[in-house]
Amino acid sequence: MSAKSHSAVMLRRNFKHVARNPTSVFNAILMPIVMMLMFVYMLGDAFAVGVDYVDYATPGILLMAVCYGLGSTATAVNSDMTKGIINRFKVMDVSRGAVLNAHVISSVLTNLLAIAGVIGVAFLLGFSPAAGPLDWLGVAGMILLLAVAAGWFTVALGLFAKSPETAGMAAVPLVMLPFFSSAIVPAEKMGPGVREFAEYQPFTSIIETIRGLLAGAPDTGYAITAVAWCLGIAIIGYLWARSLFKKRA
Amino acid sequence: MTTPAIAVSGLRKAFGDKVVLDGIDLEVPAGTIFSLLGPNGAGKTTTVNVLSTLITADGGTAGVAGHDVAADPKAVRATIGVTGQFAAVDELLTGRENLQLMADLNGVPDGKRVIADLLMRFELTEAAAKSVTTYSGGMRRKLDLAMTLVGNPRIIFLDEPTTGLDPRSRRTMWSIIRELVADGVTIFLTTQYLEEADQLADRIAVLDHGRLVAQGTPAELKRQIPGTHVRLRFTTAAELDAAASLFPGSTPDADALELRVPSDAGTKSLRALLDRLDENSLAAEEFSVHTPDLDDVFLALTGRTTEAAK
After folding, report:
1. Which of A57, A187, B150, B245 is most buried, judging by how many CB atoms fall within 10 Å of its CB?
2. Is pTM, for the whole model, over 0.80?
3. What residues of A are in contact with residue B80 (Cβ under 8 Å)?
């Protein structure tokens, strides 16, 4: 059997998990929508960012939509590891990465559902992007790249953690990071220290790239930085995950 | 000469500076049950982990079904089945879905029939559609073993398959293991229970602190350890001496005022023994029947008891 079909079998297993226990996916979709409503509908008028706030905030909330899904991925991977099912797969003639591939794919799919939810709600709140088809394609590519990178990194975190609880906790910084970026307010409005951090952390370049694309005015500088960050995180996450998978018995 | 199912020579493994396997040699002929007997921490699971390609050894060689575990782990994995100490089942799936997962991964062509057979054989048909979270410990272990069997492995590693099971589930497990060997499967079984090794194994190896301290058939090993006996404790040395002279072959322990009398522990022989004491107006303060267990094996083979008994 090929690696691809082993991954497909494992992915089917992940889908069954979601069907049995839909709360985690439900949360991953609901939380970013709640954030969207909270910041745009409740607080939006309080922020002066120069443009319609829903247009400003949507890119940041899209990023949060990716991050909120990660906790359940980390927990699921860790519980596979600590409950011994990964060891069962390891002593079978099953392609090495299949179970991890499946976790990354289902993490990305959860992200995409959440993204679709956020975009839908954004339009209801008056979101009016100036993006053309090519810009939208760029947005899709950026989000997919981020989702894959964050997925591999989270899988590695899940393998590394000692218990499902700590695995869930390990993903919390990823959920918090968007707040310390230009997601909600521009970095230049933040206090010293936080401002510098916000300007240089990976999420800001990703958000600014998406923001530029949605405004129909892509920023190449941010885009290059964002793609570099994502590729870096993806490669580190992938290599770390593979090495943990091999080592931990 | 046929290739042995498992051949191990000079196997060594250390975690940090803690030596877990200190040069193990063993050979398991195909179609037999080999039991690795030892207390917790003796290195049983580590041995299974090395042989099942989960971890690599620091030294020595290990071959499973003629394939070297280090050089060709993929070929080894294709031949073996492993059921570990803790049931490795997918708790969010049902029993049948767990088996189906194994059938899909193994590419079993007639999966449905194989699964139905296994469910029947392991008395899990009724629970097949239920989530594994509702299963008892014994059911989980059975499902775990059933999952291992889906791929029809020719060599099966069972790491303490009955630890923590109630006596009835243990018996069921034993009869399943016997059926497997009848089909020509080779079984490598680790256990803490002397009785289990005695019941099932063609050969037993006793593992202690990463070394094999004895190896042989159950009968050979039993010759090295004290058999079933009765212990009588008296209040005075005079009574002990008097009793000792009544039972030839008995061994007195003057310090504990105890007499060990070999016996088959049947009611007839016990009554005869008690009658004998009575006829001679002797009364023991304490009376106990003792069947040999892992502790006796260890005491006899290493001169000390297991860690657990301390």
Report:
1. A57
2. yes
3. 91
